[in-house]
């Protein structure tokens, strides 16, 4: 099977009713990014940060994968699919995708504030003060905040470099280092960019823009890729 790599962003989750990143007004669900998505925000008011992510988790519990998520799952029958997502929700997993890398962390996991390698699943939707790791320190959301390194970036670069096809969907391509993954593909690899607002990406050979929402754009592209993989059968 050919290797198909997908870089997904907030646009695909937005069609399931989730706002997973910054709106044009600099807010995330009416909160300042600096207050809820930075180490400084956590140090200043951990209760606010815990409550913010508790509400995001509660909202995500009811969210359902959309046609875009389901189209990516369908492609697994014809390609070796790896999804590199900037989203912290679990909608790709809910759709059945089996190989998902979360660059910016996972909403339904917590981690130790003493040892970042101690990561735990969150049962339900609440993470509370005095929820502690096995070493006795407070648990924090397992989210890569602004100003923190992206631990899985090297893995994402290696996977992207091995891709036979790259799909970029629902991302403005302005958040680094994730946006730099487009430059990691080998020469000649086809790149498909799906977004109703075409991102500002340097033109290159084998680059196709699909100015559609994730749901309709991915459904259409999946059909084309399946036809290609099956020889039109």
From TrEMBL:
Catalytic activity: N(6)-acetyl-L-lysyl-[protein] + NAD(+) + H2O = 2''-O-acetyl-ADP-D-ribose + nicotinamide + L-lysyl-[protein]; N(6)-succinyl-L-lysyl-[protein] + NAD(+) + H2O = 2''-O-succinyl-ADP-D-ribose + nicotinamide + L-lysyl-[protein]
Residues binding substrate: 53, 56
Domain of life: Bacteria
Entry annotation: catalytic residues: 104
HAMAP family: Sirtuin_ClassIII (MF_01121)
Family: Belongs to the sirtuin family. Class III subfamily.
Protein's name according to its UniProt entry: NAD-dependent protein deacylase
Gene: cobB
């Amino acid at each position: 099977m050919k290797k198909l790599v997908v870089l997904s962003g907030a646009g695909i989750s937005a069609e399931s009713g989730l706002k997973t990143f910054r709106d044009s007004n600099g807010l995330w669900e009416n909160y300042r990014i600096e207050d809820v998505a930075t180490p400084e925000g956590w140090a200043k008011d951990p209760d606010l940060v815990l409550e913010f992510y508790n509400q995001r988790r509660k909202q995500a519990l009811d969210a359902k994968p959309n046609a875009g998520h389901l189209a990516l799952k369908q492609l697994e029958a014809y390609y070796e699919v790896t999804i590199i997502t900037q989203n912290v929700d679990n909608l790709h997993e809910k759709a059945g995708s089996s190989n998902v890398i979360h660059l910016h962390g996972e909403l339904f996991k917590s981690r130790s504030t003493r040892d970042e390698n101690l990561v735990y699943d969150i049962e339900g939707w609440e993470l509370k003060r005095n929820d502690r790791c096995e070493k006795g320190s407070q648990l924090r959301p397992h989210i890569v905040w602004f100003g923190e390194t992206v631990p899985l970036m090297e893995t994402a670069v290696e996977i992207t470099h091995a891709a036979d096809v790259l799909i970029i969907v629902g991302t403005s391509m302005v958040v680094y280092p994730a946006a730099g993954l487009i430059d990691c593909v080998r020469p000649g690899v086809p790149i498909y960019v799906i977004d109703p607002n075409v991102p500002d990406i340097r033109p290159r050979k084998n680059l196709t823009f699909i100015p559609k929402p994730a749901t309709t754009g991915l459904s259409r592209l999946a059909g084309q890729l399946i036809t290609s993989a099956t020889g039109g059968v």
